[in-house]
């Protein structure tokens, strides 16, 4: 047993001693395996190093890309901030500019009627008045007495004759019209310079307006630029007239707003009372395929009706009646056998609601409506209120006040200048508007007859100021100081002021012509007045010095 254990132990020891890992032989393969392992490890190390370099390159590229993106984002953000900042400053600048412009307009609109408080407000703006010798009081008085009063004495007799004949002509017109189909014509009214007693230029022409209404059951529904409807800026002062049935939109019936069904019938609106077809609307003088009144159709109808009426009553008169101007459909001329003639205008108009504001089809001898947008746009005239305002103010002025004299002299000078240099955009209506503003601005005592020279200077200075600013506001539109006694519609008082010089802002040639004509009139004023003034004795003028304006 011990011998067996000894053998086993000896065998184990021999095996351990002879194991190749502990005591390798010199010609063994262990060193070769080690070199291969080392070589593989070097190759692995090299591949790992290359992979590391590749990864580092990719990381660097990613970092560069990320940096570029971050920089781009920063640039975009900065540009957005700059844009926002620029937009903010632009918007702020625009707001400031608009506020300044609104303040300037409000200031001017608030003071356009307060120009007569002090003499400094009437200071000359440009060089137009420098070196201009203004006629003295004696020359002006002589000129007005001999030239103005001497030629206007027959106006009252002429007005009476024209009004009487117009009434007879309109009565005959009603008799020849079909009361069931034609327009209903009312009595005429006299407006303008002949009825405001400041007409000075011959030939004297009476302006009469004739309101008319549609036959039953139709009515006119008027829309103006200030009634809430959208009108572009170039259509301010205009309106449209729609021909409707009198019961249309007036009963509040829901049959036009709700589908009642085929088996239901509206007891208020049957098929018989439906709107007339297109051809019948044209018979009502509407524009083709619309319900809007056409000014051209109205004038054609009116000319035909006047011709028929004259044929009916011509046997009663010993003169001839004809249309005098092709471009003014309502211009009529009475020709006597002696060769003399009398001209007058008979113009159809449509009343605005229950006021004395009227839609007028055209303006005789005027450029106010030269650029009417279309024949369905009608210009509004306030001529009746203008006449009433002058009459109302005249009652508060001193006896023989000089307000009408100022307008007559200025109108005469302007007419004479236009006959020399040709017509301009400046009209007698602009001159009358200047007078209306001054009548409201100055106290009554400033219009005494001995202050004719000073008030005439005021009118010229105010007109020069308006030409310089290219702004002459309509007297009634936007004027909250209109006397309540006139009963003027509040809708027009609350409207934005209407600049009568607005058409000349974009038409520089007409504006330049208007300014040049005004300057020429100033330079020629003394010569024109002296030409028509009876010689004043030297003793009468001694001590009177001509002062520049």
Structure, described:
Residues 404-477 form the Mab-21-like HhH/H2TH-like domain. Keywords: Cell membrane, Coiled coil, Glycoprotein, Membrane, Nucleus, Signal, Transmembrane, Transmembrane helix. There is one protein chain. The chain has 549 residues and is of the alpha+beta class. Helices cover 47% and strands 11% of the residues. Strands 1, 2, 3, 4, 5, 6, 7, 8, 9 and 10 form a ten-stranded mixed β-sheet that branches. A hairpin with a 4-residue loop joins strand 7 and strand 8 (341-351). The model is unreliable at 21-31, 108-126, 256-260, 267-279 and 535-549 (pLDDT under 50).
**Rg:** 47 Å
Q: Approximately what portion of the residues adopt beta-strand conformation?
A: 5-15%
Sheet having the most strands? 10 strands, mixed
The ordered string of helix (H) and strand (E) elements is HHHHEEHEEEHHEEEEEHHHHHHH
Structural class: alpha+beta
N-to-C span: 162 Å
Spatial shape: elongated
DSSP summary: helix tally: 14
Topology, please?
Elements: H1 2-17, H2 30-111, H3 137-148, H4 155-176, E1 184-185, E2 189-191, H5 193-196, E3 205-213, E4 218-224, E5 238-245, H6 278-283, H7 295-313, E6 319-323, E7 331-336, E8 341-351, E9 358-360, E10 378-381, H8 383-394, H9 403-421, H10 428-441, H11 452-469, H12 490-493, H13 508-531, H14 538-541
Parallel strand pairs: 3-8
Antiparallel strand pairs: 1-3, 2-3, 4-5, 5-10, 6-7, 7-8, 8-9, 9-10
Family: Belongs to the ITPRIP family.
Subcellular location: Cell membrane; Nucleus outer membrane
Coiled coil: 38-65
């Amino acid at each position: 047993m011990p011998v067996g254990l000894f053998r086993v132990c000896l065998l184990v020891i021999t095996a351990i001693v002879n194991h190749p890992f502990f005591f390798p032989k010199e010609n063994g393969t262990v060193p070769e395996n080690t070199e291969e392992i080392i070589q593989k490890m070097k190759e692995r190390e090299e591949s790992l190093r290359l992979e590391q370099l590749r990864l580092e390159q990719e990381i660097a590229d990613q970092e560069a890309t990320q940096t570029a993106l971050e920089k781009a984002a920063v640039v975009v953000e900065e540009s957005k901030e700059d844009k926002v900042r620029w937009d903010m400053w632009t918007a702020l600048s625009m707001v400031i500019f608009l506020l300044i412009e609104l303040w300037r307009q409000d200031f001017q609109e608030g003071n356009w009627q307060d120009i007569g408080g002090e003499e400094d407000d009437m200071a000359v703006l440009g060089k137009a008045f420098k070196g201009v010798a203004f006629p003295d009081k004696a020359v002006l008085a002589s000129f007005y007495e001999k030239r103005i009063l001497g030629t206007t004495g027959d106006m009252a007799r002429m007005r009476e004759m024209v009004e009487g004949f117009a009434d007879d002509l309109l009565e005959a017109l009603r008799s020849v019209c079909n009361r069931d189909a034609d327009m209903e014509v009312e009595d005429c009214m006299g407006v303008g310079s002949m009825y405001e007693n400041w007409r000075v230029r011959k030939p004297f022409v009476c302006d009469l307006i004739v309101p008319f209404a549609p036959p039953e059951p139709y009515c006119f529904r008027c829309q103006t630029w200030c009634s809430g409807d959208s009108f572009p800026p170039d259509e301010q002062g205009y309106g449209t007239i729609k021909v409707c049935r009198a019961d249309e939109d007036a009963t509040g019936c829901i049959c036009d707003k709700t589908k009642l069904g085929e088996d239901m019938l509206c007891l208020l609106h049957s098929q018989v009372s439906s709107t007339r077809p297109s051809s019948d609307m044209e018979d009502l003088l509407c524009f083709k395929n619309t319900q809007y009144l056409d000014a051209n159709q109205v004038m054609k109808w009116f000319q035909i009706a006047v011709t028929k009426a004259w044929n009916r009553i011509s046997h009663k008169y010993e003169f001839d009646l004809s249309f005098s101007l092709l471009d003014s459909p309502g211009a009529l001329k009475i020709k006597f056998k002696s060769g003399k003639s009398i001209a007058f205008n008979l113009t159809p108009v449509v009343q605005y609601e229950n006021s004395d504001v009227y839609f007028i089809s055209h303006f005789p001898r005027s450029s106010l409506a030269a650029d009417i947008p279309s024949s369905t746009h009608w210009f509004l005239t306030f001529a009746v209120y203008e006449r009433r305002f002058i009459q109302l103010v005249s009652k508060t002025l001193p006896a023989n006040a000089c307000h009408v004299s100022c307008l007559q002299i200025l109108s005469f000078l302007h007419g004479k200048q236009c006959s020399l240099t040709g017509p301009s955009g400046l009209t007698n209506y602009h001159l009358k508007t200047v007078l209306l503003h001054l009548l409201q601005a100055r106290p009554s005592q400033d219009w005494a007859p001995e202050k004719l020279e000073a008030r005439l200077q005021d009118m010229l200075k105010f007109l020069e100021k308006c030409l310089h600013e290219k702004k002459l506001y309509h007297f009634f539109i936007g004027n909250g100081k209109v006397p309540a006694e006139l009963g003027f519609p509040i809708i027009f008082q609350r409207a934005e002021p209407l600049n009568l010089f607005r058409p000349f802002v974009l038409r520089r040639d007409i504006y330049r012509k208007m300014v040049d004509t005004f300057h020429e009139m100033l330079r020629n004023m003394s010569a024109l007045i002296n030409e028509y003034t009876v010689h004043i004795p030297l003793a009468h003028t001694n001590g009177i010095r001509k002062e520049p304006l």
